[in-house]
Design goal:
By secondary structure, this protein is an alpha/beta fold. It contains four helices and seven strands. The protein has one domain: Rossmann fold, CATH 3.40.50. A seven-stranded mixed beta sheet has the order 1-7-6-2-5-4-3. A hairpin with a 5-residue loop joins strand 3 and strand 4. The two termini are 13 Å apart. Bound molecules: adenosine-5'-triphosphate and magnesium ion. Magnesium ion binds next to helix 2.
Length: 145
């Protein structure tokens, strides 16, 4: 999948969102950062689950709301960090949790839900996935390099 130009996808189910996410994951290299933007219930965690699967991760990815960062080991030695910053106030609070060490890990894939909490800490090069509700099961996903 070519992720160098902006693309817009329509998903009609959780499964379609997971499948798209797994294809995106398989097109990225370790070190990649993916920002997941969208309202509560948009599908950021669903996307993350598909993304982890696309990297060959067998563990079930759950919402890391209470742990902030969840780490997954991937086949081949790479890691995936799944971050949910909903409960983080701002960049200063995030630094208090050591979030920068996860973001700066060059060997890990990073998925960040609620990146708007830490705009000043985000790497320059990120893939942005913006998910918008269109109906009960319909979502638009805008992928921007
Ligand atoms: N096309 C779709 N893609 C993704 N999720 C969908 C879709 N249709 C329905 N859903 C449902 O929407 C919900 C998305 O929940 P999810 O936890 O992924 O949202 P979230 O964006 O991570 O929210 P939060 O900000 O609270 O973490 C799930 O209940 C899922 O079943
Ligand atoms: Mg979530």
């Amino acid at each position: 999948m070519d992720l160098n130009t902006e693309m817009i996808y329509h998903s009609r189910s959780e499964e379609e969102t997971e499948k798209l996410a797994s294809e995106i994951a398989a097109s990225l290299q370790p070190g990649a950062t993916v920002l997941l933007r969208g309202n509560l219930g948009a599908g950021k965690t669903v996307f993350s689950r598909g993304f982890a699967r696309g990297l060959g991760c067998d563990d079930t990815l759950s919402s890391p709301t209470y742990t902030i960062v969840q780490e997954y080991q991937l086949p081949g030695g790479a890691r995936l960090y799944h971050m949910d910053l909903y409960r983080i106030a701002d960049s200063a609070a995030a630094l208090g949790f050591g979030v920068d060490e996860f973001i700066d890990d060059p060997k890990a894939y990073k998925l960040i839900e609620w990146p708007e909490r830490i705009e000043s800490l985000l790497p320059e090069k990120c893939l942005t996935v913006e998910i918008t509700h269109q109906g009960d099961e319909e979502r638009t996903l805008r992928i921007t390099p």
